[in-house]
Amino acid sequence: MKHEDSPHTHHNHNDCIDTALDTAEILCAQQGQRLTKVRRRALELIWESHRPLGAYQLLAKLAEEGFNSAPPTVYRALDFLLGAGLIHKVESMNAYLGCAHADKAHKGYFLICDECHNVMEFDYQDIHAALIEKATHQGFELRAETIELTGLCAKCKAKPAGASA
Amino acid sequence: MKHEDSPHTHHNHNDCIDTALDTAEILCAQQGQRLTKVRRRALELIWESHRPLGAYQLLAKLAEEGFNSAPPTVYRALDFLLGAGLIHKVESMNAYLGCAHADKAHKGYFLICDECHNVMEFDYQDIHAALIEKATHQGFELRAETIELTGLCAKCKAKPAGASA
DNA sequence: TATAATTTTGTTATGATATAACAACTAAAA
DNA sequence: TTTTAGTTGTTATATCATAACAAAATTATA
Ligand SMILES: [Zn+2]
Ligand SMILES: [Zn+2]
Ligand SMILES: [Zn+2]
Ligand SMILES: [Zn+2]
To answer: Where do the annotations place Zn(2+) binding (chains A, B) (predicted)?
Structure first.
């Protein structure tokens, strides 16, 4: 699994979105889960943002489109999408990000730029294996991993401070 | 650096607290920082809890003792202590934990038990080195690391579910 | 198809975490 | 001693998340 493309990288993001939604439909169907209108649209809206989206930002967008605008609406959709592995939560940002590899079981490891707030998901089996070993060695049964690295992305390092992408 | 003792391990926790406060005094003095009454007491209260303490839990304790009871009081103290490296924030819990090794520069890596909510800090230079290398390889300048592993601690694995320590 | 069971959504209220802004005070420096 | 920088007090508000229960829609069963 390799998904380390920068959000800056030139690409047709509509393709990303389409692929993600197709994958979501398939995965939900396989698992007997219902990708309802609001869930589907929530996922799409998250994907339309390259950067992680906050729950209330998402709620505002949904409200604009006539969906119910109370918080439980968005948190239920987020819970569903998280449970289905279609999105990740970035704990240190309280924000949500579409996962491009929902069909492959994996942990969400992130590189988060302090300057432009773009987030890159990366995969690192060596890290995962080492963490498992470390935890097991201490008699700890590992269930979830939050790996969030913050700093300055390559683009922002090359730019004068403040000029975020 | 080795600080992998379980909070369950029998020990005189008053010694931990005393040591932590002594270290804090020394570090602050060295850096020309002022460990004021409220900051010192906040650190002490955090240390008195083996488990990470929420900001408002801490605020309540401070208020009981006659300190100002508005949120900025506690968040200012927390900011100070975080900045001085005397405590860590556990992002996935929104809670704060005393660091037993404030005198040694290090990243806070945690093992968090879903059952008893105890948190063990662990150190793993290999992981740190690997993450640095990974980030650098992508042109990313790494500044901070959030490594939070959740699951079931050894004690809780050995116990019937629900009987948290 | 009718009915029941299950899941999803609507709605209101509240809880939990964190910061902005500005005034008052205090300690340190000049 | 005046200035300066740092700290604390105070009020208000922003931001993130869940509880509880009613209504509607979907799915399963009779
Ligand atoms: Zn992913
Ligand atoms: Zn950047
Ligand atoms: Zn530490
Ligand atoms: Zn435990």
So the answer is: 113, 116, 153, 156
